[in-house]
Amino acid sequence: DIKGFVFDLDGVITDTSTFHSQAWHQVADKVGVKWDDDLADALKGISRMDSLNLILARDHKENDFSADEKNALAAEKNDNYLKLVSQMSPANILPGIQALLNDLKAQGYLLSLASASKNSPLVLKHLGLGDFFTKSVDPASLKHGKPDPEIFRRGAEILNLDPAQCIGVEDAAAGVQSINGAGETSIGIGDPKVLAAADINFTDTAQLTLANIKQAMNAATL
Ligand code: BG6
Ligand code: MG
What we know:
The protein has 222 residues and is α/β, with parallel strands linked by helices. The protein has nine helices and five strands.
């Protein structure tokens, strides 16, 4: 039986995945790497430095910058991102999410956060959702980022649950891969072509209701 939910943050609970994209797009322009939707999708769920390396590798520029220069570019991206985050409020919670969290809490499901973002505590604070996520995996403590299963495995562990008792919710292909590798049931939010590996798919968070999840769990051959 499902007893817990392990949530990604950016692009699932809130619309910050577009903020991350905007902030990286500015850096890509600066280093002369062409930005497109595929690159934006490939960066979802990926840690800050891995993201920068992926952008540079797009144009075989990964060896053109020293470690110091890369750190400066990553810091610049984070400054861009923090400017966007500073404007955030509960209005940035994606459709249906507040209702879902209320339902899950009322029904006694355990919740944890498995976000790759070091900014997740700040974002949760702006959203007013800190009380729902008292348990989160610290991304700084991970050996491997998404798509490695480590983060979602830890998301179950901090709830004292087996992965099989958990549903993981993700908007990134790398995140769905992490959930599947951890042995949890995966829900992908977004384009079913990008998230083909998910056990269950919803095109947007408005469809992510407890009733729809239960129905999909019964329909899916898991
Ligand atoms: C993930 C985002 O949640 O966090 C990525 O999907 C981001 O786009 C990653 O790169 C790391 O975030 P941060 O805030 O630590 O740079
Ligand atoms: Mg995400």
